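User: what does the whole thing look like in 3D?
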Amino acid sequence: MKPRERVLRAIERSGPDRVPIDFGAMCWSIVDSPHMEHHPYRDLCRYLGITDYPEPSSEPMMYEVNNVDERVLQRFGVNIRYMYPHTPPFRYDTQGGAVLGSLGVRFKPRGYYGDPDRFPMRDLSTVEEIENYPHWPDPNAPVYRQEGLREEAIALREKFTDLALAIELPMEYSSILDDKMMLFGIDRVLYNLKNRPDLYHAWQNKYHRIGAKILESILSQVGDILDIVVIYSDFGTQQGPFCSHDDYVRHVKPYEALLIARIKRLAPKLKIIMHSCGSIVSVIEDRAEIGLDVQNPMNPLAKNMNAEYLKAHFGDMISFHGGVDIQRLLPFGTPKEIISEVKRLIKIWMPTGGWIAAPSHNIQPDTPPENIVAMYDALQEFGDGKFVSEV
Amino acid sequence: MQELHVEQLADFVIKGDVAGAISLVEKLLQLKIPTQQIIEKGLLPGLKTVGDRFECGEFFLPELFSAGEVATKVSNLLKPHTKPGEAEKKGTIIVGTVHGDVHDIGMNLVAATFQGAGYKVVNLGNNVSAADFVNAIKKHNGDLLALSALLTTTMPYMKTVINAVVESGLREQVKVIVGGAPLDDAFARKVGADAYGKDPGDGLHKVEMLIPRKGGR
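Assistant: Here's the predicted 3D structure for the full assembly of 608 residues, as structure tokens:
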């Protein structure tokens, strides 16, 4: 079975020949900030004997390496490759800040990640102020017309004929709460959701009006070439969802449904993976109902997000991506423990499918390279699940 | 009648009704109700209920943030009417997210909860060094240190902070509570903290056990 078919069969839960493999947390990979002393991506390359890797490139928000060397991906048997739409570049200033061009949020490097320097919409208190925010993206700007994107997708397809191909829709116009949190701060977003629904919905309506046009420019060009589209709706903490199920249904689900329906209309062939960290178990059924194909990232240490529970409760309605714990196991576990966990996960999901194997988020800077290698070697060695009947 | 009004404040905290809470507290202050009574019979029971409901899964972050907003606004309203030294008498808490970590939303919520409960809170913000924590304990005569971290990569720094407190000879004077998503009781014990706070309500409960009342009211 070709990797592309394997990935699609896993998503459709129709019996892949083995568990499909992805690197890092989908299009995001491994945290490697130039501002910190640990450089796990460089360590990994050197550990694999690759010394002439290109200088890692990342954006000053999450410092996720976005040009992982093809030799690393092949060594790990990764079945998916990603592409990205055109976005306005970050504008760097002299004080070490970087402004996200499409939203006007200024990031500064702090520790391993970049964080918003301040939240530019935090103190807006009227619908008019939200409407008139000066940094809303202009969907008619040349960059958003996505000229040449189709040619890029065709070239990628020709290069990776047998692999599954995905496009990540940038969160600044394809998410539900993520970019709003960058603009207001998460506490203000959730406070407004409860106490100022007029502001909350005014923002969502304007955002989705703009997003719809940009989405159309992207998907009309690549929807028939690629296999997967990645969107965002972060909604969980380690302990539970951001808000009650009632509030989710009233304030969040309608926008998730709108986004998914738009994608299905523009590109009916694409499978949709939604990123949503933490314990989001209370809304998985809702997401399956509105047409979501795959839930990422399956953080196993978040409440009720372990593989057995998810498979038992939702395994017949939706598929999952992620699942190999990055909070304890990968950074602090031994290779033996990692191999054992990988085998346990394969046993849960095979032979039906429903799982794309990957870490439960970005591989973190304190992860030893031998642990990363142990995970991918185990996935390749045991991924067909045959060891289960041999035991 | 007056006591009935004070207790109504708890309902406004639970509902996250800032305007209702402010209006009520302004009336209570006009009636010369002591600030300590407003805190202990209104604000604190409200925050405790919100914490309990959050813990049992009945309340979520919007309700916590709304209650935190009420607590902050009411505390600010009470400040000019509070006798000098009254909050310090209850206890001074130094809070901050440790070096290398900039996650401060949960920590700010915890600070608002402690402040709402009548403690003097010195919020050092995020990315705070061990030396700055030690200096703040000395400067403000801190009774309790509340440390926060959200990342596995930054939580070991809590041990560095506690070691610095020990080395400065202040450990006998100050209790230490730690909190943050990747932490648990075992980690708190391992780094030498006195307690682990799972969430703001649990944190407040632990703080009340750790800081003995200083003198009578």
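In plain terms: The first helix of chain A runs from residue 3 to 12. Chain A has one domain: 3-88+130-390.
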